[in-house]
Design brief:
Strand order of the largest sheet: 2-1-3-4-5
Largest sheet: 5 strands, parallel
Number of strands: 5
Low-confidence stretches: none
Radius of gyration: 19 Å
Distance between the termini: 48 Å
Length: about 325
């Protein structure tokens, strides 16, 4: 970071986001128009291919090095009994991914995807958001910068996922901060919370919103105050991908997307929403963001599973475009 305040560099990035390659998108759409098929008969497959071209600058597009990046963090607010899982479950899930036994491992094998899982200081949970900021500005900015490194090895499709006991409550707090409403409007069962636990989740969200007050009007302040490390890292990864012309697939949880969209409504133009969890609040948030999920499989597993599944569809759209282009020529 080179500026006086840690967030300044990210504010500058958000103010100067590169646009889509409109010419590449137009070439793909023209290709489909020339192909020997009824107009628009491939539906969203044509739109996905055009989106890939627009944000990669390649027409026809190609997906040769897709990557699923999963960021794992723990939250101090979990001490309020907001999840049926113990905090140790986050590290256990990371270890399962490392051992190749998680659902996302199998989906990556099926769709020939790379996989990286990032342990974001799981031994040091963020502060309890009901009485303190989750992160200070320097720590949040550093975690965003770390997330930007996810693309360092090279990729042409970035699929993002998260891990963290209690992070559905954190997502609800971010939604409430950015969209308004009470905790009860945004909390759900998460990983299996019963009615009493959901009431505690709503109470925690309301307490956090009241504690941080008007500071939450700034999206990056909301991210550091009521967010978490995995949310900050994913925000950084989304921004880095934009700067490097890498299309992005978002997993079901749209909280990070909401933060960036609040800072700049164009910040998610290079992103598609892979899927949504069954929780109604996630669908409402996606609608506010103008994100339409590619898949509707009722997947609430998180951990990048939805993005890994949708990556297969995106790869198919790219191959359809390139194969039909060869036929047209």
């Amino acid at each position: 970071m080179t500026s006086a305040l840690p967030f300044d560099d990210f504010r500058n990035l958000l103010a100067t986001l590169p646009p889509a390659d409109a010419a590449a998108e137009a070439r793909v759409r023209a290709l489909f128009a020339k192909a020997d098929k009824p107009k628009g008969s491939l539906g969203r497959v044509e739109d996905i291919a055009a989106w890939l071209a627009a944000w990669s600058g390649r027409a026809p597009p190609a997906v040769n090095r897709p990557l699923v990046a999963i960021f794992a963090g723990n939250h101090g607010v979990a001490r309020h009994g907001i999840s049926p899982r113990p905090v140790a479950a986050t590290a256990n899930a990371v270890e399962l991914c490392a051992a190749g036994g998680a659902a996302v491992n199998q989906m990556c094998i099926a769709n020939d995807l790379g996989l990286k899982v990032f342990d974001l200081a799981l031994h040091i949970p963020t502060a309890d958001i009901t009485e303190d900021a989750a992160l200070d500005e320097r720590g949040c900015a550093a975690t965003m910068a770390f997330g930007m490194e996810a693309i360092a090895g090279g990729t042409d499709l970035l699929c993002l996922g998260d891990l963290g006991v209690g992070n559905s409550t954190i997502a609800a707090a971010l939604f409430a901060a950015l969209f308004g409403g009470k905790g009860a409007d945004w909390v759900g069962s998460g990983s299996g919370a019963d009615a009493a636990m959901q009431a505690r989740k709503a109470k925690v969200v309301d307490a956090a919103i009241a504690f941080h007050g008007t500071s939450l009007r700034d999206p990056l302040e909301a991210l550091r105050r009521v967010g978490g490390r995995e949310f900050a890292a994913i925000a950084g990864a989304i921004l880095a991908a934009r700067m490097q012309e890498i299309p992005v697939l978002l997993d079901g949880l749209a909280a990070v997307a909401a933060t960036l969209h609040a800072a700049n409504p164009a910040a998610l133009d290079h992103c598609l929403l892979a899927s949504l969890s069954p929780e109604p609040a996630h669908a409402r948030a996606a609608e506010r963001l103008g994100l339409r999920p590619l898949l509707d499989l009722g997947v609430s597993h998180s951990e990048g599973a939805g993005a890994a599944l949708a990556a297969g569809l995106v790869k198919a759209a790219a191959l359809t475009s390139s194969g039909m282009a060869a036929a047209v020529r």
